[in-house]
Specification:
The protein is α/β, with parallel strands linked by helices and 237 residues long. The protein is built from 6 helices and 12 strands.
Length: 237
């Protein structure tokens, strides 16, 4: 079963005024939640502090991985004047980015990107989660490292979702044993009555990210902590 690209369809519907509806997301550890597609079209002032901070740290030739509707790329391109390439595996999302004026776009999985290197690699809106499972993180980080210029940086945000699990009397957490790591979830997306094929996603706590970075020859710095167990980190060689 191939992906229906419902996320991308919602983005393109919104961009082309084609009666967009809310995306319904549900994970293996959370109930259904409606998300307005308009959120993906937010401007700089509407972005969370972590994203604003990441954009202001971007420099040089930049790769926006999993760019979605292209809001981060547009700010870097139009306001900061950076050379930005926006990539996403969603054809529809990339179409929307082009319609919005992102100059360099590619329907591309970062894991298959070749022959190009960057000064800044952005993975915002929990971009590190795209590696799906913790066992894939080394391969993921090594790939990012291989397309990073000397003195380059990887900027990513994620969350520690331990707060979502119940505590026992001793203050320990009840974690289902099906997962190798508690930050791994299965995502379900529904749009206009169609269901997407479920996919793996991961929220990685900072210590786990730091350990994985160090194990793969990357330095890891905590740049900013958000209000709700979320953080922005910078990885460099």
């Amino acid at each position: 079963m191939t992906m229906k690209d419902l996320f991308g369809k919602a983005i393109l519907d919104y961009q082309t005024n084609n009666a967009p509806e809310d995306l319904i997301t549900e994970t293996s550890i959370s109930e259904e939640d409606a998300m307005s597609v308009a959120y993906l079209f937010r401007n700089f002032n509407e972005m969370p502090k972590l994203e604003q901070c990441a954009l202001q740290l971007a420099k040089g030739k930049t790769l926006d991985v999993g760019c979605g509707a292209g809001s981060h790329s547009l700010y870097l391109q139009n306001v900061l004047g950076l050379d930005v390439t926006a990539i996403d595996i969603s054809e529809n999302a990339i179409k929307a980015c082009e319609l919005r004026g992102v100059k360099k776009t590619k329907v591309q999985d970062v894991m298959t990107l070749e022959n190009e290197t960057f000064d800044t690699i952005l993975l915002l809106m929990n971009g590190a989660g795209m590696c799906g499972k913790l066992k894939n993180i080394s391969k993921f980080l090594l790939k990012l490292k291989s397309i990073l210029n000397e003195n380059g940086q990887i900027l990513l945000d994620s969350s520690d979702i331990i707060y979502m699990f119940d505590e026992d009397e001793d203050g320990g957490k009840w974690i289902p044993s099906v997962n190798d790591y508690y930050g791994e979830v299965v995502f379900n997306v529904t749009y206009k009555g169609q269901k997407e094929k479920p996919f793996n996603w991961m929220y990685v706590d900072y210590n786990t990210l730091q350990n994985a970075a160090l194990a793969n020859g990357l330095k890891c710095e905590l740049i900013l902590e958000g209000d709700h167990y979320d953080y922005l980190a910078r990885l460099s060689v």
